[in-house]
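Before drawing any conclusions, I looked closely at one protein, both as residues and as discrete backbone shape codes, quoted below without any editing:
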Amino acid sequence: MVSSQRVYNWYIALVAAMCMVLYGYDASVFNAAQGSDNWLEWFDLDTKEDANLIGLVNTAYTIGAIVAGWFFGGPTADYFGRRVGMGIGCLVTVIATFLQAFAPWHNLGCFIGGRVLIGIGQGMALTAGPIYIGEVSPPEIRGQIMTFWQMFYSVGSFIAYWIAYACNANKEKLGHWDWRMVVIFQILVPAIILILLPFQPESPRWWIKRHNNIEQAKKALRRIRETEQEIEDEALAIREAIEFENEAVSRSYWALFKDRSVRKRLYLAFILNVGQQLSGQGTLNSYSSAIYKTIWPSSQTINLINALNATCGILFTLNAVWTADRFGRRWLLIIGAIGMGLCMMIVPIVGMTTPDVISATGVATKSEPVGISIVFLLFLFILFYKPSWGATVWIWTSEVFSINVRAQAVGMSSQMQNVANTIFQQFFPIFLANEGLECLFFFMAANFLLAIFVWFFIPETMKVPLEEIDVLFGGQNHVEKGGQMLNVLDAHADVKKSSSLHQNDASAEIKDV
């Protein structure tokens, strides 16, 4: 029977995972807004003449997120706590939502300002959230719990697209509220998180790292661990690891660049997070409406497809729950990249080998059966993406860094997604306009290269305790070395014995970067 502590552990992790709803909702909000004629009218925009300006609106979010993730998210989560980091991010998101929803007539600057603030808020929340989940979760189910981080991205998209679909169906009645309703509902989830956060424990690792407060750490552990022995062992392992990191590595973020093992992890995490966008998912999420418009003229049909896509995304992500801690991170990343590459190869082939049909408006489009087949293939792409390069990249990134640099490293690494996305957003609309579906061959090649990269360079981290993960990257065992400094020897012999074979196999796979 599942214990009350394990149930509560899942609950607090899922509250933190709700931060990802902010990201999923916002990523879908702009896609839905730019499909609204009322939104275009309110800000005096034309999709063809103002394509670069519309791209700037989308880029404004990523700029805010990058700045927050690289410079504010890590220090805030380390100094004030993981919960405070998430809370500040949610509060800023609420404020920014009102700026966007009630931007004055033809005042695109106010809307863009709101987008920048949204990015800052989410950069803060998306740094602290996965760290909190990784630090409170037992190693044997850490992958399962982190899966829900990515699933809540799909939940955010689900909420945004279905609201957009309902608003679009009633746009005559709603007028300019058809896009405002989609934007303003963004305050719902951050408001819930702000209410729930004060009542759950802070990360025990933060208590020891920031304040050296062993009792508060044990108090937090007692709410999420089942036995007193587990609590004592975990608290001791945290103390040992932090002792070694403080004395032998560095107390500051300079360890990111001074420590060869940490530096290696940072580069690998950068590549994985850029690879998540190279897969094509981020770009397709922003411009799926533009792609579907080449097939269907009806915005109602396009909104329905996007809503169904978001719904399926929730179900597809759940595949990582039973695979991440069974088959491992590497297996998911490799299979996912190969599957996505095949989808990105077949879609343009279908477009190239089928005839165009002239619509009633004189525009060349594809027939509906061809359109359905393309939508099916893009849904199949999501089936491969969600549990692999969607969920697993976040799982791997949140668990590979030692606690002295974890917050800053996760913030920097995760925002490499936005760095890559910012670059792609500048050229993809033009790429799509000039090449049509053939532009997807770029993502095909990228996905196949990512599969090769993972095979040769990414070690397996499944079920390895956070404090002992350094060994996989050529570093020293922080628990063992810290125990020697504290004159506590062989305190974790049983734990080390159970994980030693796994660590040795994985460490043999990693190569110098």
Remarks:
- Residues 368-399 form the longest helix (32 residues).
- The two ends are 45 Å apart (CA to CA).
- Strands lie at 356-358, 364-366.
- Residues 493-513 have pLDDT under 50 and may be disordered.
